[in-house]
Amino acid sequence: MAISLTEKAAQHVSRFIERRGKGSGIRLGIHTTGCSGLAYKLEFVDAPIPEDIAFASHGVTVFVDPKSLPFIDGTELDFAREGLNEGFKFNNPNVKSECGCGESFQV
Q1: Which residues lie across from 64 on neighbouring strands?
Q2: For the segment 12-45, what is each residue's pLDDT rounded down to a tens digit?
Q3: Cα separations (Å) of 96 from 19, 49, 78?
Q4: What pTM, to 2 d.p., does this model score?
Q5: Burial of 76 by CB count in 10 Å (0-12 exposed, 13-18 middle, 19+ buried)?
């Protein structure tokens, strides 16, 4: 079981934590929403929750709750710029389909 960040994603997260002046890392999870059923959620972590599972990648700690892990195990989080848009890209090997807008997925 593992969650990883590309070097670009880790640099982006590190800069934001530095600007915030606090933080232990980021939490990656899922919630039910959208046309395909599941969507990713990302948030800064100031204090880990005891049941969180922690993964270190390029100097950044990614925290995942045990209920989300089976759906995102093996995911690599990237940060990409495409034209004027930029944002995180989730390379999740468990995804079977995605909705047309790309906001939600099924496993």
Answers
A1: 53
A2: 999 999 999 999 999 999 988 766 688 889 999 9
A3: 37, 30, 19
A4: 0.86
A5: middle
Q: In this structure, what DSSP letter does residue 96 have?
A: -
Q: What is the pLDDT of residue 33?
A: 77
Token pair 């959620």: residue: 41
Q: Locate the DSSP E strands across the chain.
A: 4-5, 25-33, 37-45, 53-57, 60-64, 76-82, 85-91, 97-98, 105-106
Q: pLDDT-derived band of residue 102, with 50, 70 and 90 as boundaries?
A: low
Residue 28 CB-density burial (10 A; 0-12 exposed, 13-18 middle, 19+ buried): buried
Closest CA to 2 of 51, 65, 75, 67: 75
In the β-sheet with 25-33, what is the strand arrangement from edge to edge?
A: 53-57, 60-64, 25-33, 37-45, 105-106, 97-98
Report which DSSP code applies to 70.
Answer: H
Q: Hunting for tokens 């800064």 — which residue is that?
A: 44
